[in-house]
């Protein structure tokens, strides 16, 4: 059996050999795949209740922790504002004291 040029370019190592030409074997592959897909979906969908409850409890715990962190962030922001205000108050007080020191020095120099 001689190969044509077209066959040589399409199949340089020869035509692929199909060992099993039985069409029922392919349908069994589909049935097995479908069965595995259904089994996987049922395992995912019908999880034990305890696992779902523990997941929901973990989510609730994380949400409460997030709210606590947000509250502490708000308190920290308030504290930063208070510190900035007290810093500006202290700086103005330092300026006042320095001006008083300069006044006292000038009074001492006059004496």
Distance between the termini: 130 Å
| Number of helical regions | 3
According to DSSP, the number of beta strands is 0
| Helical proportion, percent range | over 70%
- Rg value: 42 Å
Instruction: Return the string of H and E elements.
Output: HHH
What summary fits the major beta sheet?
none
Overall mean pLDDT stands at 77
- In total, the number of domains comes to 1
- Strand percentage lies at under 5%
Contiguous low-pLDDT stretches (5 residues minimum) are none
Structural class: mainly alpha
- Please state the overall shape, judged from the principal axes of the Cα atoms: elongated
Region (Disordered): 1-25
Coiled coil: 52-107
Keywords: Coiled coil
Describe the protein.
By secondary structure, the protein is mostly helical. It has one domain. Helices cover 82% and strands 0% of the residues. It is built from three helices and no strands. 0% of the residues are buried.
Question: What characteristics describe this protein?
Answer:
111 residues; mainly alpha; 3 helices; elongated
Question: What's the short story on this structure?
Answer:
The protein contains 3 helices and no strands. By secondary structure, the protein is an all-alpha fold. The longest helix is centred in the C-terminal third of the chain and has 62 residues.
């Amino acid at each position: 059996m001689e190969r044509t040029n077209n066959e040589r370019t399409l199949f340089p190592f020869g035509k692929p050999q199909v060992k099993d030409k039985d069409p029922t074997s392919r349908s069994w592959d589909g049935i097995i795949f479908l069965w595995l897909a259904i089994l996987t979906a049922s395992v995912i969908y019908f999880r034990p209740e305890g696992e779902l409850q523990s997941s929901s409890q973990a989510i609730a715990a994380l949400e409460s922790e997030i709210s606590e962190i947000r509250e502490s962030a708000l308190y920290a922001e308030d504290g930063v504002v208070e510190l900035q205000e007290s810093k500006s108050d202290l700086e103005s007080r330092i300026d006042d004291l320095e001006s008083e020191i300069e006044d006292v020095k000038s009074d001492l120099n006059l004496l």
